[in-house]
UniProtKB/TrEMBL annotation:
It is found in: Nucleus. Its main location: nucleus. Key component of the cytosolic iron-sulfur protein assembly (CIA) complex, a multiprotein complex that mediates the incorporation of iron-sulfur cluster into apoproteins specifically involved in DNA metabolism and genomic integrity. In the CIA complex, MMS19 acts as an adapter between early-acting CIA components and a subset of cellular target iron-sulfur proteins. InterPro entries: ARM-type_fold (IPR016024), MMS19 (IPR039920), MMS19_N (IPR029240). Belongs to the MET18/MMS19 family. GO terms for cellular component: cytosolic [4Fe-4S] assembly targeting complex; nucleus. SUPFAM superfamilies: ARM repeat. One of its GO terms (biological process) is protein maturation. This is MMS19 nucleotide excision repair protein. The lineage of its organism: Eukaryota, Viridiplantae, Streptophyta, Embryophyta, Tracheophyta.
């Protein structure tokens, strides 16, 4: 290919070197020269030869512009094939220029361009990468540079660690000294993000107890801790490569990069849990959760007691007065809810990650905690009735969440929790249910002994935990069923009583319970029935008859209590959820029973003699049909028979199935099948 004449491309070099020219012209010159090299109209050898004056002159402004031009061109010819000699020459040149502080930017650009080149087109060799890093650490004072140049420095260091780790592993103390010096006192957000990534990469590279990470953990963490928690604000429209969340995640990953940070990180995070700033508290919980996972059970065991008491303080810190006082501050409420949720997640992680040697210590710490014991006994006491235990619903929810997280962590934990509290809660529930039933039979005034909501709520939470254990248990389940003391046996003993109470809350009308309160009871009862009916089939605690009875209870509500739309829709949704679980777990025995229920709902051949309005019955058919293809096919068949039969009947008895009803009927059919 014909080469371009010197006179045609040298003006581009001169234009770039001239600092008085506008940036657009500088950029155009780089593009033009790069295009010539890429198209083989100008060889790199000729270019460098003719640029020698600009690359070696004592005029530091011209020299810096010349070196920067070569570096920028090298960036733009990253896919251009270069031979070994060319790469070696360029490597020697740019590495040597790292000591030229007046032309450092061009050297950094050129070094980064060399590192980015792929082996298939000619790349820098490992020996030169190591030499580059050594020269960099000896000569480059990162924090004395402008932000743009510091960013280049961090990009170089990160790229070497990520792509050339073998060039780093043989280095000694100078690597950690250089890194600490480079990142200390950094304030630019984009550079900070890169510096946190740098710490993560370096510490992961030396996992041995006698390695650099272990030796310098204290010094490195001291620098990191200055940035925690991240305080950084930016506008919505700010064009930044690093937001506050990005910085916080990068710092968290740096915290978690080595278990040798544990003696320093955990006390700091636990201390910040007492911060009055919601963001600092939330960050501490997120960091703590990840650190527990990364540091391991052996190291975290020593912090078990402190972690529990700190998390308990956060989880139970929201009083009803606090909630009411911030009822107008939606952001504050959101922060508090998010904090409690994160604390519960962290507690779950702590429980799951603890080693076998700490299991008993941890469960005893929580189960025997005087605040937990006192709260559950207060809920289960005979004096607790109705919504008296719900005076602070946030506290009850927190208590239920802690118990659930503990119980669902393992079969052993589940057994311990149920042994401690389940029987007493169900007994309390029975007593309060008996008082309510007696009152409804004998009195006409408001009840003073309503069903104990707190006991109901906690019992259902424990049921949910049992189901989670049953779902996740990987071993043979028969030993659980046959054990003298297991959660299964404890549940089985109280199951009939609990089912009766849950069903009664759906089927017994109580005009003395206010509608809002009534909805809380119903919601909890429906949840309990769903849980019981969706255990995996081999581990289902219900007998076939009890399972059918639960389904018939929900069906009865759907067919006869449609005046209460809240209860009606809850029951319909519950029935659909149970049907979906049959499909999910391939439960053939359950499916036979469930099909009987589907047939009851979809039997529309006598629409005039049923009390439920046709539109609701069709809605019920549609919802139940969504639980699985088999259900939809059964419903479709029933509807087909209904359409044929009712069209014939409508012809003879128009009063029984009038035209407006037929119109609605077809609209619902269209909804189902479309």
């Amino acid at each position: 290919m014909a080469k371009v004449a010197v006179g045609q491309w040298v003006p581009h070099v001169e234009a770039f070197v001239d600092v008085s020219r506008p940036p657009a012209q500088h950029s155009a010159s780089v593009d033009a020269l790069s295009a010539l090299v890429n198209k083989d109209k100008l060889t790199l050898f000729v270019l460098v030869s003719k640029m020698e004056m600009y690359l070696t002159t004592t005029d530091h402004i011209v020299r810096s512009r010349g070196i920067l031009l070569l570096g920028e061109i090298l960036c733009r010819i990253s896919f251009k094939q270069l031979d070994v000699n060319a790469i070696s020459t360029l490597s020697d040149f740019f590495i040597s220029r790292l000591s030229d502080w007046q032309a450092l930017r061009g050297a950094l650009v050129g070094c980064l361009a060399l590192l980015h080149r792929k082996r298939t087109v000619g790349s820098i060799i490992i020996a030169d990468v190591k030499r580059l890093l050594e020269t960099f650490l000896q000569n480059v004072q990162v924090q004395s540079l402008a932000a743009a140049d510091r960013k280049l420095c961090f990009q170089i260091l990160n790229y070497i660690l990520d792509h050339y780790p073998e060039a780093v592993k043989t280095m000694g103390d100078e690597l950690l000294y250089g890194m600490c010096e480079a990142i200390d006192e950094e304030k630019d957000p984009e550079c900070l993000k890169l510096s946190f990534n740098l710490v993560e990469a370096v510490m992961k590279l030396f996992p041995d107890p006698s390695g650099l990470a272990a030796q310098y953990a204290s010094e490195v963490f001291e620098i990191l801790s200055k940035y925690y928690p991240i305080y950084f604000t930016h506008g919505v429209g700010d064009d930044l490569d690093a937001t506050r969340d990005d910085l916080s995640k990068a710092l968290m990953h740096a915290f978690c990069s080595t278990p040798y940070f544990e003696p320093f990180a955990i006390p700091l995070l636990l201390d910040k849990l007492s911060s009055s700033l919601p963001l600092a508290k939330l960050d501490s919980l997120k960091y703590l959760d990840n650190c527990i996972r990364c540091y391991g059970a052996d190291r975290m065991g020593r912090h078990v007691i402190t972690i529990w008491f700190k998390l308990k303080e956060v989880i139970f810190s929201l009083s009803i007065d606090q909630i009411l006082s911030t009822s107008g501050a939606k952001d504050m409420e959101k922060n508090k809810n998010e904090i409690v949720s994160e604390a519960l997640t962290c507690l779950k992680t702590a429980i799951i990650q603890m080693g076998p040697s700490d299991e008993d210590r941890l469960i005893n710490l929580i189960l025997l905690d005087e605040d937990i014991v006192s709260s559950i006994h207060s809920v289960a006491s005979e004096e607790a009735s109705g919504l008296t235990s719900l005076q602070n619903p946030i506290q009850l929810h927190a208590l239920g969440s802690v118990i659930s997280i503990l119980a669902e962590s393992s079969a052993y934990f589940c057994t311990r929790v149920l042994q401690a509290h389940f029987a007493r809660l169900v007994d309390s529930l029975e007593i309060s249910a008996g008082r309510e039933s007696q009152h409804l039979n004998n009195c006409s005034g408001p009840s003073s002994g309503a069903i104990n909501y707190g006991a109901l709520y906690l019992s259902v939470q424990m049921l949910s935990s049992c189901r989670e254990v049953a779902l996740t248990y990987k071993e043979e389940f028969s030993p659980i069923k046959s054990a003298k003391e297991s959660w299964w046996l404890i549940l089985e003993k109280k199951l009939d009583s609990l089912i009766h109470i849950l069903q009664s809350l759906l089927t017994i009308d109580s005009q003395f319970v206010q509608s809002a309160d009534r909805q809380e009871y119903v919601l909890c009862a429906v949840k309990g029935l769903i849980i019981l009916a969706t255990f995996p089939e081999p581990r289902l605690p219900l007998s076939a008859s009890a399972y059918e009875d639960v389904l018939l209870t929900l069906t009865s509500v759907i067919m006869s209590k449609y005046e209460n739309m809240h209860l009606w829709r809850l029951s319909l949704k519950a029935l659909t959820t149970i049907g979906s679980s049959i499909v999910e777990f391939h439960a053939s025995q359950k499916e036979n029973i469930y099909n009987k229920v589907v047939d009851k709902i979809s039997s529309l051949d006598e629409p005039c003699r049923t009390s439920i309005p046709l539109n609701l019955r069709l809605e019920a058919c549609f919802e139940v049909g969504t639980s699985g293809s088999n259900c939809m096919l059964r419903i479709a068949k029933s509807l087909e028979e209904a359409v044929v039969g009712n069209i014939s009947e409508a012809t003879e008895h128009s009063s029984c199935f009038h035209s407006s009803c037929m119109s609605h009927f077809y609209k619902q059919l269209n909804k189902i099948f479309c």
